[in-house]
Amino acid sequence: MTKQSSAASPVQNLEPEFAAFVAIDWADQKHYWSLQALGSGQIERGQLDNTPEAIEVWIAELRLRFGDRPLAVALEQCRGALVAMLSKYGQLHLYPVHPLTLAKYREAWYSSRSKDDPKDADLLREILCQHRDRLRRLDPDTTTMRLLQFQVENRRKLVEQRTALSNRLTDLLKLYYPQILLWFPDITTLLVGDLLLRWPTLLELQKAKTATLENFFHQHNCRNQPQVEQRIEQIRQAIPATQDEAVIRSSQGMVRVYVEQIAVSFRKNGVFR
Predict the structure, then answer these.
(1) I want to staple 145 with a disulfide (CB 3.0 to 4.6 A). Which of 141, 150, 220, 241 is the partner?
(2) pLDDT digits (tens, 9 = 90+) for 135-144
(3) Other beta carbons less than 10 A from residue 207's beta carbon
């Protein structure tokens, strides 16, 4: 076991005497693990399926061998499915290793720099055993704090997803319906989404009666009458960007898909404009 440096945090100084040092290289289908028991020079290796049942059986085997003594576990993530599965076992003390740290460590020892799951498990274990004083142990927060963290992370992912959908929608509109991008600064609003679903092409929009358009804008809280009239005038004067039916029909089909996905993203995010 490595000696704790004077710069280590108080939590790190209070770490227990671990019965074994384990590293897990995470993968979608299977995890590769590397284990070294305290006071032993022997390295044990294996793999297990990425399922809660396989993890449970593996932990049960470790308990038969080490009892309830604490185990140090290194893994290449600080959150995610594997962390969630392992966090419920109180005897496991998790030490996340940043992917860049592992990559640099791999580069120092292997010139090929190619990723190899069993090899990476060994490298993670070496980092855990030899440089644990530089790692921050993952101490579980309260349920409320962890819930907040997951909600913030989910919201961030939804925002990123919505941005990607907005970019794709923008690219399609540039092909056959670019006026939408000029008339409306934010194409992810409910107003634009409903307009595109109701009038997916400029020609269909131009066929709408003035009273119908006014009523549509009013229903979407556009009550500035001069602005409404200006938009309707712009609609009347607009020229189609293309007459190519193949472009128009294929684009409007995908536009519907993106609009509906953006709407779902807003609902999941709790913000539907």
Answers:
(1) 141
(2) 888 876 667 7
(3) 10
